[in-house]
Amino acid sequence: MSILILLALLIRPLRAADLVTAEADLQAGKADDAISLLSAALRANPSDPEANNLLCRVDFTLKQFDQASSYCEKAVQLRSEDSNYHLWFGRALGERADRASFMNAFSLAKRTRAELETAVHLDPHNGDALSDLGEFYKEAPGVVGGGIDRAEDIARQLDSVEPPRAHILRAEIAEKQKDLATAEREYKAAASGAHPAFGWMQLGSFYRRQQRWEDMLDAVKSGQSAAAHDRHAGEALVNGGSVLSRAKRNLDLAIQLYETYLSSSIKVEQAPAFDILIRLAKLRQQTGDAAGAQRDRSAALALAHDYKSAQELKP
């Protein structure tokens, strides 16, 4: 066996292990560690689709959406049949569209729709892709392919894939149409299904928008109770903290929800630990805990030294 072949056999499992570790770091909110591993992987093989996709997702958590879009586009070019690669490219394009000038936003929104539609076409059972496409159709104007009727079609597809998300999408459509009774009923239906913590927090967010403060607090507390028995409830804890923080009510409970999330093993990339630490730091500042705020800011920077929100937060 030649030395080159032997080296290839030795390097291949190491690279694969590094990508697994990088994804675990991404889920745990260890952005700097993930970037270090993925940058090394791409130096060794710039045409690695998974490394490009993962680096896109790390940049996405850091809100560096132009850079994220570039890596996700490369992943799609390298492996065009992967539904999730198109989903993440669509998400990055969508964030860019939200921040772009009018003319650029128009073009980016059309590209966003195309990527999300491709993701669903490639895997009609991809719940994340269906939910994102439904959200796009609900919010986007018809000139870029949006429309309530299209969003309702997606809700019907979600019925057989992830029923709670179908209820959430229908609730959002009803709320957009000012049909508050239907919206409330659909949010409650989501809270009674699988993974109820997420549905409870969505219901709490609805009550916040309606300024129904007691109902909001009851829903968040119900979500907190449900989360204690749901290993998929990480994002729900964060949503509950966000509901209370935005309402500027019961900030001690908001802090508790964020702390529970950070101390758990159910962290997810949609709620990166460094971002939650900054949210905590801001809440501690509001409640007079300057030392705690500084501690959380330092912890966030230790995980993601380039995170702009952490850099900009004044000690």
From TrEMBL:
Residues 1-16 form the signal peptide. The keyword Signal applies. Keywords: Signal. The keyword Signal applies. SUPFAM superfamilies: HCP-like. InterPro entries: TPR-like_helical_dom_sf. It comes from the Bacteria. This is Tetratricopeptide repeat protein. It comes from Acidicapsa dinghuensis.
